Amino acid sequence: MEIQRTDYQWGEFHSPFYRSYTLANFRDIPQIKRLPKQLQFEMEVVGNIFPFKTNNYVVENLIDWKNVAKDPMFILTFPQKGMLKPKHFNKMAEAIKNNLDKKELQNIANKIRLELNPHPAGQLEHNVPKLNDGTKLYGMQHKYNETVLFFPSQGQTCHAYCSFCFRWPQFVGMEDLKFASHETAQLVQYLKEHPEVTDILFTGGDPLIMRTRLLANYLNALLEAKLPNLKTIRIGTKALSYWPYRFVTDEDSYELLELFEKVSASDIHLAIMAHFNHPAELSTDIVKQAIIRIRKKTGAQIRTQSPILRHINDDAKIWAEMWQKQVSLGLIPYYMFVVRDTGAQHYFGVPLVRAQEIFRDAYQIVSGLARTVRGPSMSATPGKIQILGVAKIGKVKAIVLRFLQGRNPTWVQKPFLAKYDDGAIWIDGLKPLEGKDFFFEKELEKILRKENTASGNDVSSAGGGPP
After folding, report:
1. What pLDDT is recorded for position 2?
2. Shortest CA distance to 100 belongs to which of 91, 88, 87?
3. Is residue 459 exposed (0-12), middle (13-18) or buried (19+ Cβ within 10 Å)?
4. 153 and which of 182, 257, 398, 440 could share a cystine (Cβ 3.0–4.6 Å)?
């Protein structure tokens, strides 16, 4: 199917000039100028620790500026005081008030960042793959047999940053905390050496921040390699939410959709893994048009995912509305995640028991087409762990969990029990209902020790319980 350039010359739709706002110029936003000076200062303090970038589409279309204190899209895209614990906030605030220079502020920020578990689930230590000749591929992760994550070096930023982002270290200038790769040949070689891999996920950052010609270099290399094991290419992106013009009226939007169609036509399934955190992101005419363009012109499938976030979407009605909107637009609800144990988890995290109740209540009021979604799921060191609910074992309440993915595939779909705790927000806050360890912990420690020995890392244990 040939895509004509004229398809993308839409009368009322045009790409405005992209303008980003960061810590350096956010006070230029007219709506920000009207906010109290103290609130602006708080945003500056937090923005010195966590990455902050938004853009004119988000500012002008997605935020209710009359109610920023409670507006979910404002909280999703602008720094919030509560994202820092008081000791960290006060330390940075004092440094700014004392007019310390940029280098001193950066040193203070980096010390604070290292206390925020910048790479959860052992990403740096345990998931870095190697070629058969021993070459480490630092721009990739391989945790589950079937799926490899690839971080294209030109895609390690986004149209705007989410305040909760668990990959925040990618964007704060600490080079040793980044994932990035431009070695396409090594990616192809790794897939040849690992026939168990069926899926590759392009992630970041946001791969769709790249110009189409750059993205094409990666995708064409995979297509030309004709790898018999490669069945699916996934692209993780927030572009539909934060810059939908990318698919409709940007200068190279038609080339992007042609590239998508080329992948689909090659007998490799293309899945766009779209991040939508609130129904507001699905409300504009341009995002609806972008979805239509992808679905009708390319053969790609759009799946949706989001963590459950306090202050933003911790309400069953919000999730039900979001899933229903997604289905009506032809999208496939895929995952509800739990906020990862990094960064501002204390601010955005929802207790596991409460998260499951929200998932359950939303799930009960949507049709079967929306029940493709799975969750709530923790992407922890052992694997993706789903909270199934609370059950009574005799007279004792217990939390029921299971693996959706595991470092050992045989763990998958095996229910296990934890002591009831309505305050726990992560697996390391739970204790086994019986015994000292969950069924997978001792094996996990052996797996990680083996990986560490093979990679040369000096890590002596799994980190004290399930990391």
Report:
1. 42
2. 91
3. middle
4. 182
